[in-house]
Amino acid sequence: MNASKHISTVLTFATIAIVSQSARAESVELWRDATVTGEQVYLRDICTLSQFEQVVVDQFYALTVAKAPEIGASAVVSMADIRRVLNENGLNPALTMFKGATQCEVKRITRTLPAEIAQSDSYSQTSQPRGGTLREFVEAELGKDARRLGGWVQVVFGKSIGSMLDMREGEYEFDIRRTNDKQLGLISLDVIVYKNGEEVQQVGVVADVTFVKPTVVAARPINLNAPITKRDVSIVNKNYKRFEQAGLDSVNAVIGQRAKRFIRVGEIIQERNLEPVPLVKRGQIVQVHSRSGGVVIESVGRVIKSGAYGDVVELQTADRTKRKFTAMVTGPGSVSVGAMDASVLGAATHLALGGDQ
Predict the structure, then answer these.
(1) Residue of 161, 203, 208, 205 whose CA lies nearest to 183
(2) pTM for the complete prediction?
(3) If you ran DSSP here, which 8-state letter would residue 251 be given?
């Protein structure tokens, strides 16, 4: 009986050790879909690496996994492809956890638009780039709002427009008009083609428009109340069907903030899920600074409500009077008061300057 308990205990500890080790293991998570704009699909385009040293992450993210499909087309990259590439570059698969999707659908889009169009928010015949195709003009018209929001559009045309997309300005002139008010999703247009001033073709077009934007996502799990560091986030291109769904596009807007809830690997980091890290907390005794002329007066106070850098918070004096006053948070455990608030400190200020109790 004792031997049986001993074996059970050993197995339990072994199981805990294995689970603990796997929780810390380096991992590769493949996404279900991704968007690329170049001729190659890199590892950074389709998956997230977690728990690796940063130098290893930089090296692996730069690896080419496959050739990108043609513009407007898609291709599939499998987990087997990821394993092969990493194995060829020195990764031991036995020590790495592979998770996420079994394959990733990679779409290739045109990221850049003609410079003449990108510089203008208006669409007219005079603003069209010389020699541009009808495809470029339509994408420029549909992408005006996206450019203002720091992204671009992916446009999938219906079959009705056919080979008209390859018509080029110079030989033809184009008149493009929206027939509904939608910004994204299924948008309808009337396209009229002229040659030498005469109408030669007219067609109603339906285009499926997707907003694409570089977006900050979690590079590894971020726990509730955890401050976000540079290693916690990365930027990937994300597709949206509504502009208001778009996440943040700058890591500087995220780093140093605190997570208001648990954030999964690969999840878009929304501003509503972040909050400033409090430098003073409720109930904490903090240093209170007040400048009077050339003299800095120091005392202490108890924080009534937590606050981040620059917040004006309410405090009370640490003596028996517990008088309330306000101060601005200037650092960890440190606040600064104005001239009017300094008078509230009373005896505490007097003691800080070396007076008698």
Answers:
(1) 208
(2) 0.46
(3) G
Other Cβ atoms closer than 10 A to 190: 13
Q: Are 90 and 66 in contact (CB under 8 A)?
A: no
Q: How many CA atoms lie within 13 A of 332 on its CB side?
A: 1
pLDDT band of 110, cuts 50, 70, 90: low
State in Å, rounded, how far the first CA of the chain is from the last one.
71
Rounded CA separation 107/69 (Å): 7
Helix segments in 102-181, DSSP class H: 115-118, 134-142, 144-148
Amino acid at residue number 149: L
For residue 150, what pLDDT band results from cuts at 50, 70 and 90? confident
Pick the closest to residue 239 from 37, 14, 80 (CA basis).
37
Residue 17 has phi, psi (to 5 degrees) of -65, -40
Domain positions in the chain are 1-108, 115-209, 285-352
Listed residue (335, 334, 333, 315) closest to 325, CA to CA:
315
CATH number for domain 1-108, candidates 3.40.50.720, 2.60.480.10, 3.40.640.10, 3.30.200.20: 2.60.480.10
183 within 8 A of 244, measured Cβ to Cβ: no
215-239 pLDDT, tens digit each: 999 999 999 988 888 889 998 989 8
What span, in angstroms and rounded, lies between the C-alpha atoms of 68 and 50?
A: 25
The CATH code for residues 285-352 is: 2.30.30.760
CA 278 and chain centroid, separation: 22
